[in-house]
Design brief:
Pfam families: Glycos_transf_2
CATH superfamily of the largest domain: Spore Coat Polysaccharide Biosynthesis Protein SpsA, Chain A
Largest sheet: 9 strands, mixed
CATH class of the largest domain: Alpha Beta
Helix content: 40-55%
Domain Glycosyltransferase 2-like: 5-131
CATH architecture of the largest domain: Alpha-Beta Complex
Number of helices: 11
Protein name: Glycosyltransferase
Distance between the termini: 68 Å
């Protein structure tokens, strides 16, 4: 059975950190190590870490240069076959989920992901990312594999490099774009409710920064001619998706197209 490195990064989130740590150290699996990287918190987080330090494989509390610098610290300490990034505030849904994931996951995949649970409108919503279907480059152009519910093979970071610390919130997406979208690393899905996602983080709340950084990554990674095609196609598909969401508007568009088509045929 593969061994997992669970990495938690934290900064001034005492309540969230305690919840995250407790969800990890109560796992029934023993095939994991637990790494906590704190950014020099001043709110009592260090007390939480010391309270649980006997259950931690490694921890440090010192200033860092952002979330990806902190994650990279964790990756450098990781000795497992796979890494899971469980940020403070996120937590594992039940004590047996790690054991279930490690038991069910295929051995020949670079990335394996489960389900993520979010609170949307005071309702628990299960997010399945791509739910096991083949992931295309266009999928990653427009979306992503949920980070907290993914097991990423540790060796991929040796192959493609650590997270790009020049970006604040999209470096995990950039990593997927390169490894899966451009280099065809294999991805598998386990239909297991794995992680509760805290949707009050910077990546959720700062959509403008997300779009700005995504555009910078695409410009960096894709030739301009290819990028121009994807930008045009993505815009057209978004418009069509919105039209389909409004059934009446979609009905008008389709029938207008039919009228124009047959008018052209009649007067040709």
């Amino acid at each position: 059975m593969p061994r997992l490195s669970i990495i938690t990064i934290n900064y001034n989130n005492t309540v969230g950190l305690a919840k995250t740590i407790e969800s990890v150290i109560t796992q029934t699996s023993t095939d994991y190590e637990y790494i906590v990287i704190d950014g020099g918190s001043r709110d009592g987080s260090l007390d939480i870490i010391k309270k649980y330090e006997k259950s931690l494989s490694y921890w440090v509390s010192e200033p860092d240069r952002g979330i990806y610098h902190a994650m990279n610290k964790g990756i450098r300490q990781a000795t497992g076959d796979y890494c899971q990034f469980l940020n403070s505030g996120d937590y594992l849904i039940t004590p047996e989920v790690t054991e279930r994931m490690l038991t069910d996951m295929p051995s020949d995949c670079s990335i394996v992901y489960g389900n993520e649970i979010r609170d949307i409108g005071n309702k628990w919503v299960v997010k399945k990312s791509y739910a096991g279907r083949p992931i295309t480059f266009l999928d990653l152009y427009r979306g992503t594999i949920f980070h907290g519910s993914a097991y990423i093979k540790r060796s991929l970071f040796d192959k493609y490099g650590l997270y790009d610390e020049s970006f604040k919130i999209v470096s995990d997406w950039k990593f997927y774009l390169v490894a899966v979208g451009l280099q065809n690393e294999q991805v598998a899905y386990c239909n297991i409710d794995l992680v509760w996602f805290d949707n009050t983080g910077i990546s959720t709340l700062n959509q403008a920064l997300d779009q700005y950084e995504r555009a910078a990554v695409l410009k960096q990674e894709l030739p301009q001619r290819i990028l121009a095609d994807y930008e045009r196609f993505a815009t057209d598909s978004i418009i069509l998706g919105r039209l389909k969401a409004n059934r009446f508007t979609w009905f008008l568009v389709v029938n207008l197209y039919r009228v124009l088509f047959w008018t052209d045929k009649l007067f040709a």
